[in-house]
Amino acid sequence: MTIKKTYKLFIGGKFPRTESGRVLDVRGKDGELLANASWASRKDFREAVVAARKASGGWGKASAYLKGQILYRIAEMLEGRRAQFVVELVAHGISEERAEKDVSEAINLLVHYAGWSDKYQALFSSANPVASSHFNFSVPEPTGVVGIIAPRRGSLPELVSALAPVIVGGNSAIVLAGENALTAITFAEVLSTSDVPAGVVNILTGKRAELIPEFAKHMDVNAVLLCSNDKDEKKLLDLESAENLKRVSHQKDAPLKESPYHILDFQEIKTTWHPIGV
Amino acid sequence: MAKTEPGPHNFVFGNYAPAPESKDHFKIKKSYDLFIGGKWVKASKKFETINPATGEVIAKVGEAGKKEVGQAVKAARKAFEGEWGQLSGAERGKYLFRIARLIQERSRELAVVESMDGGKPIRESRDVDIPLVAAHFFYHAGWADKLDYAFPGVKPKPLGVVGQVIPWNFPLLMAAWKIAPALACGNTVVLKPAETTPLTALKLAEIFEDAGLPPGTVNIVTGAGETGQALIEHPDVDKVAFTGSTAVGKAIRRAIAGTDKKFTLELGGKAANIVFEDAPINEAVEGILNGIFFNQGHVCCAGSRLFVQESIADKVIKKLKKRMETLIVGDPLDKNTDIGAINSAEQLERIKALVKAGEREGACIWQPEGRLPRKGNWFKPTLFTECAQSHRIVQEEIFGPVLAIQTFRTPQEALEKANNTPYGLSGGVWTDKGSKIFKMTTGLKAGVVWANTFNKFDPTSPFGGYKESGIGREGGVHGLAAYLNF
């Protein structure tokens, strides 16, 4: 008899059950029970924000070299578990060929963004030739705590393409996984063995309608990435996020294309002036 | 220094001979219409714009309603799809260069009108506002044909029609900050100036006419909050750019929720100006004064919270008071004036209410002696000591010449107190130690940080806030992103 895995949440580097005691009935393509995944509550979300905030200072200050190595390490760990992900994706009804391709794509995305860790700053910084006698420069800094509403459907590339640009930019993240909840939690196992500091990535499985308003309203969330084609979801997020002027990036319900501009979406530009003289 | 009684020229502090700027070399019309589609269009209603230093009416201006705003957006759309939209970047740039030159040529007139309509000292409008206005057009002119170089890997495209709503503290400068990058990026504009300071934007419209800017490229609709709302909510506006209060900024964010409108918001601030014991004290004192009393403190990035290291607090406060006693409050058109008129009676009331709250909550108020002019809106330069983090004068944006002073012992304490605010527009650090500067400037959650200086601006230098101080940047290469689609 095979031993089945219990799928829980990923908060602050740990795998807690939802405090609500609720579960999502996740079934395979033949209707068999794959798991009773956690149905995260608003309180779980708030716990995740606390963990993300706690982690954001250290991660934001970690050297670009270190962040790059850690992203590359995630790719290495994912490669090592390739077979497991393929089996899990196939159980979800994805063809084996597609599953292999998806895992490869996710690995490629991580390697791609690992390389950006010490380069996007040069691309998005400027030394500004002001007319007065001052040295003046502008550099990107991480926005802080970023909520990610991952694409609704799909598998690994959807999740990783949204997450990688956020964390390589020094932000911590709370991800609401898509319907493919099991893959997201298995990916959390990859993260937890990849030297990603606890709390930098937190992954929740649950219902969008219940949790999107919480992402939007929480005063300690600085930005939200919404992957959605649903106009009502966007409107709700826009309205509720006004209170603390969250940065909102609205993307399609699909994998994000590789681009350093997705990193820039979650950066603040800081300009510093200093007089030249003695 | 000997104090003089208020004389005929509204002198209060100091005893300099008056040196008023003349205003006989240009004309202000008695009445202005709206500038729509390259023509002056009558509005159904008019309102008065008042000189805050005298209370006198300067001119009447049109109040654009929904209908007129609609006409302006239509004219802007036509220009975007027509003449302006079809120009090459290089040709757009030439218009902007030409506008920059015309502004330089009429700079004296613009400075005087700015001071009359808004109350700011002529020295500031002459030496800061108007030169920066010209510089903004000149800087952005050069970008018009080089946008592909600004954003590698993408082909940026203009957004379309941009609706812009600007405040009364830097009326023409804010118009320049908004219009110049919008035009350089190939957009067309409908701009609403603030209701208390519409005149220089209307003068700018005259300059656009003289420059031969294609009709509809920039439209100026004067009015108050309702005019702004009509502009922001207009369905054919592709992007909204707003500078003003955080409360209105949030309302705008809600008003455009769920639409595809892009937006930039430059909102309020409560900047910390942090002075360490190893700072050059005299320079720091000048920086503190400039930080809070520049433009009567009507500055979103004003250094309104002073943090002084405990060991030098007494010395700095003593020097500050001594220096504040020499500040001349009075006639904005006088070249000796340091602090001009408060922009409106309404703003004066707001300042008074917050100052009262400061006294009531237990902070110690200090103001220099001397009497203020009888007519017009005035407020003395003011400082508060014994302030607590919870005081309203520490938490809320006063937008007036009022400084709240607190002390600290360690850099970490200074950072924690400085960042303990929902705002994050600017900050200041004063120390002679380089490594301490960078510890502080990287630790401050603010978009603009001045080290050993304060309140400096330049078109090449991006400006904008963290947190509730706004979204987006203006100026520099980063400011262009706000007016382009990738």
Strand and helix map with partners:
The complex is a heterodimer of chains A (278) and B (486).
Chain A: E1 23-27, E2 33-38, H1 42-61, H2 64-80, H3 82-91, H4 96-116, H5 120-124, E3 126-127, E4 134-142, E5 145-149, H6 156-168, E6 172-176, H7 181-192, E7 201-204, H8 208-217, E8 223-227, H9 231-241, E9 247-251, H10 260-264, E10 267-275
Parallel strand pairs in A: 5-6, 5-8, 6-7, 8-9
Antiparallel strand pairs in A: 1-2, 3-4, 4-10
Helix pairs in contact in A: 2-4, 3-4, 4-6, 8-9
Chain B: E1 31-32, E2 34-36, E3 39-41, E4 45-50, E5 57-63, H1 66-81, H2 83-86, H3 89-105, H4 107-118, H5 122-143, H6 147-150, E6 157-158, E7 161-165, H7 171-184, E8 188-192, H8 199-211, E9 218-220, H9 225-233, E10 239-243, H10 246-255, E11 262-266, E12 272-275, H11 281-293, E13 305-309, H12 313-324, H13 345-360, E14 364-366, E15 382-385, H14 392-395, E16 402-408, H15 411-419, E17 426-430, H16 434-443, E18 448-451, E19 470-471, H17 476-480, E20 484-485
Parallel strand pairs in B: 1-5, 7-8, 7-10, 8-9, 10-11, 12-13, 12-17, 13-16, 15-16, 17-18
Antiparallel strand pairs in B: 2-3, 4-5, 6-20, 11-19, 14-15
Helix pairs in contact in B: 1-9, 3-5, 3-8, 4-5, 5-7, 11-12
CATH class of the largest domain in chain B: Alpha Beta
Average pLDDT score of chain A = 96
Give the overall silhouette of chain A: globular
CATH architecture of the largest domain in chain B: 3-Layer(aba) Sandwich
Number of strand segments of chain A: 10
CATH overall fold name of chain A: Aldehyde Dehydrogenase, Chain A, domain 1
Number of helices of chain B: 17
The amount of beta strand of chain A, in percent, is: 15-25%
What is the mean pLDDT of chain B?
96
Give the helix/strand class of chain B: alpha/beta
Query: Which spans of chain B of ≥5 residues are poorly predicted at pLDDT below 50?
Result: 1-11
From the spread of the alpha carbons, the general shape of chain B counts as globular
N- to C-terminal distance of chain A = 78 Å
Low-confidence stretches of chain A: none
For the biggest sheet of chain B, the summary is: 7 strands, mixed
How far apart, in Å, are the first and last alpha carbons of chain B?
Answer: 60 Å
Number of helices of chain A: 10
CATH class membership of chain A: Alpha Beta
